Structure prediction request, 244 residues.
Amino acid sequence: MTKATTPSRDAVLACYRPIRTSIQRVLAEAVKHCRKSDFDRAGKHLDLIDQQQLDDEETFAMLCDVALFEPNQRGRRVIDGFITKRADTLDPADRDLVRRLSSAFFSIFRVSGWHENGGVKLEDLLTPDRRIWLMDENLEASAPEGLVIAMRVFDAGPFHAGFGIVVQPDGEASAFCSSAAARGQPLPVRYSLAAALYGDDIARSAVAGAVEDGIAQGMLDAMMSDILTQPSVSKLGTRRTRRS
Prediction:
C-alpha cells in the first residue's frame, strides 16, 4: 500500500477490533466441529502426556489450532469441512472471515519495525521477500525490533491478522528451518511446523515449571531442616518420641 491508500490509524482500529471479535466467535464454532480423533491426533503431534497440560489455557489453544488447521493422515483439514457444512449458517461478516481464515499459514517471522498506522512489520524467514503488515495491538506495544516469533496469520484485507498462540522458537530451530526453506528442502519437522514449535514451547514450559517446583520444594526442605535443628524444637521432638 502507498501512503495515499493506507487508511488512518483510527480507520485501521475500527476495522481490526471487530475482526478480532469475529475470529474468536468463528473459532469457537469451528472447534465444535472437531471430533475426538482430531484432538487425539493433535495431542499426539504436540506430545501431550497428561490432563494437567490440557488444563493450561495456552496449551489448549495450541491443541485446537493444530486440530483445526493441520491436515490429518488423509490430507483433510477440519476447518475446510466446517466451511463446507456450516459457513452458510454464519452471519455475513463471519462468513467472509472464515473463508479468509482457511488460507491462514503458519511461519516464522522477524519483527522488522512498527507500522505507522498500527501493528508491526514482519519479515517471513521461510519465504524470501515476503513482508507483511500485521495488525496486532499487543505486539505493537511489547515486541522489540528484531524479535523472532512464530504464529498463524491470514490476509484480513488491508492488513494481516494473527490468531492462536504466538511462540518464540529457539535460535537453532529458526536457523534449521530457514536454511531448509532457502534450499527448497522440506522443513526438519516430524508433523508440521506449528506442531513442532508449539510442542517445543510446551516442553520448555514443563521443564521450567518442574525446575521452579523443585527450587520451591528445596527451599521448603531447607527451611524445615533449619527449624527442626533449632534447640527448642529438637528437645520438643525428643519428648514427643519418648511419649510415643
